[in-house]
Amino acid sequence: MESVELTWEPARSAPGEFSRRAPRTLCCPDPCSRILCRQGALPGRRILANREYAKDYDICHAEYGKTGVKLLYIYKSGLHQTPRELEVTTRISLADRNEYKHGDNRDIIGTDSQKNIVYVLAKKHGVTSPEEFGLLLAQFLLDQYSHVVESSATVIETTWDRIEKDGMKHKHAFVHNPGVERWASVKINRREPPVITAGLRGLRVLKTTQSEFKNFYRDEYRTLLDTDDRIFSTIIKKIQMDMPNKHYMDMDLSGFPKDMVGVGVNKTVFLPTDKPSGFIHAALERKGSSKL
């Protein structure tokens, strides 16, 4: 089937029609065609297209939900308290496409309702981890609404570190740690087991010695020399790790007077560089079944 993009252009097209354009991109990763629209492709708003082209297309995937639901949950045990701050995003897919094809809103679960469900579940069950809360929320959307065929929840946690004074951790005072975010994404289809992806954002690691790189492939394009010792640094983004190299290059200070920089090869001052960088990808998979 040919892929075309249908865009609403009232200045060029007759009222209620779409103009046909050459394909630029597919909106979904599946090998199917999908109607794309700049204006109007929203639940509850009927898509009107030229019948000559509309009969050849169908909506292969549609989802909607609430983005950026902010939540602070505080565990309390007397004066000892622990905050869990989350940002939650929901997505659901319905069994039919009546809201797109016929402007029929009767099956639509309002995004405001989805926001309220986040708060009610937090109040009823508490918040333990992004993975567990995301799984709880996604499963609830399937259990509560029989016409939802797929649901997903993405949960990002803001890190709060307990303040210490004189070696003692404060019971209810915290400082924000902007360096690391914990996150989880949960997707559940009624016909399949849950898929949970989780990780950390902004977790930067540094190893200052005992990291070598040598004996790699030699050809006419290689200029990088073997090294027995170098600085290793990267940013871990998720369990399926994408690890761009963060280089710390040796600096040649031999051109400066010895009374300024000392004698011998410089091994204490380095130049941080992040571009261009190499790229390393590795995936971790839990052995056996999950205990979640």
TrEMBL record:
Presence of the UniProt keyword Oxidoreductase in the record: yes
Pathway where this protein functions: Purine metabolism; urate degradation; (S)-allantoin from urate: step 1/3
Binding site for urate: T111, D112, F213, R230
Keywords: Oxidoreductase, Peroxisome, Purine metabolism
Keyword Oxidoreductase: yes
Residue numbers binding 5-hydroxyisourate: T111, D112, F213, R230
Entry GO terms, CC: peroxisome
GO biological process terms, semicolon-separated: purine nucleobase catabolic process; urate catabolic process
Reaction equation(s) it catalyzes: urate + O2 + H2O = 5-hydroxyisourate + H2O2
EC number assigned by the record: 1.7.3.3
Enzyme class at the top of the EC tree: oxidoreductase
Single GO term (MF): urate oxidase activity
Residues given in the record as O2 binding sites: T111
Subcellular location: Peroxisome
Residues passing through the membrane, by range: none
Family: Belongs to the uricase family.
Function: Catalyzes the oxidation of uric acid to 5-hydroxyisourate, which is further processed to form (S)-allantoin.
Matches recorded under PANTHER family: URICASE (PTHR42874)
Name this polypeptide is given: Uricase
Organism: Nezara viridula
